[in-house]
Amino acid sequence: MFPLRVSGLRFAPDGRAILDGLDLEVSGEGISVILGPNGAGKTVLLRLLAGLLPPDGGRLDWGGAAQAGGRLAMVFQQPMMLRLSVFTNVEFALRPQMPSAADRRQRTAEVLARVGLAHREKDCARLLSGGERQRLALARAWAMRPRLLLLDEPTAALDPSATEAVERIIREIRTEGAKVLMTTHNLGQATRLADDIVFLTDGRVQEHAPAQRFFAHPQSPAAKAFLQGELPWRIAFER
Ligand SMILES: Nc1ncnc2c1ncn2[C@@H]1O[C@H](COP(=O)(O)OP(=O)(O)OP(=O)(O)O)[C@@H](O)[C@H]1O
Ligand SMILES: [Mg+2]
Questions:
Q1: How far is the CA of 204 from the centre of ligand 1 (A)?
Q2: Above 60 in pLDDT, residue 50?
Q3: CATH code of 54's domain
Q4: Residue 222 and residue 228: Cα distance in Å, rounded?
Q5: Residue 124 belongs to some domain of the structure
Q6: Is 64 a domain residue?
Q7: For residue 41, which atom of ligand 1 is closest to its CA?
Q8: CA-based, 20 to 30 A from 204: which of 41, 64, 87, 118?
Q9: Is residue 219, in this structure, part of any structural domain at all?
Q10: Report field, pTM of the whole predicted structure over 0.90
């Protein structure tokens, strides 16, 4: 599945190029964080990688294969929950890949304990708070033992302690051998989690560098402006 090589990726559903010949290479280890202003195409990129949107051009090469295979999970900014218990939300997601109900129950109990939701397993998932929902969504993805986990702003709208909890879970998932590719608008979070930064504006990768180097010595004028808080609305809307 790795390295994942994206070349010339284009997404232009109404003739307007949202991804405009995007090139990117992602290794199979660590946490890669995608940064960029609103409307840069971060969510679209994740959805294309997850196979949820059809590209209008370009190529995805998953370590020599055209398909990612089944070992990919994505968590959305506002995860959808079934109107069922916390436990069933995880157990249900495991059905396609784990035929044994006993195995599913065991794995579900395991991941709910890992994210601190074991005591809520009988509650309806729709009644969870935002932070609890995010943890449940991560548990659901984690349960499937993905090789690649795509996370779209996993801590948007969470308080500092919920953010901390989610960051800890993301690190554990990484430690267990999953590659994590995520977006965030929280630069502190990017410095805490990222091994490398993919900086996106206008549907292209402007810069891809080890995190320390990106934050200490951004190369492109756009990345410098972004880090100084000067970029977002101008590049996003003035073209
Ligand atoms: N399915 C779609 N069809 C057409 N246009 C879309 C689609 N999804 C997103 N867009 C457009 O693509 C552009 C990029 O959207 P995207 O959601 O990827 O931005 P983003 O980088 O994730 O921004 P944010 O930081 O605000 O989440 C936006 O102008 C959006 O309106
Ligand atoms: Mg987005």
A1: 13
A2: yes
A3: 3.40.50.300
A4: 10
A5: no
A6: yes
A7: 18
A8: 64
A9: yes
A10: yes
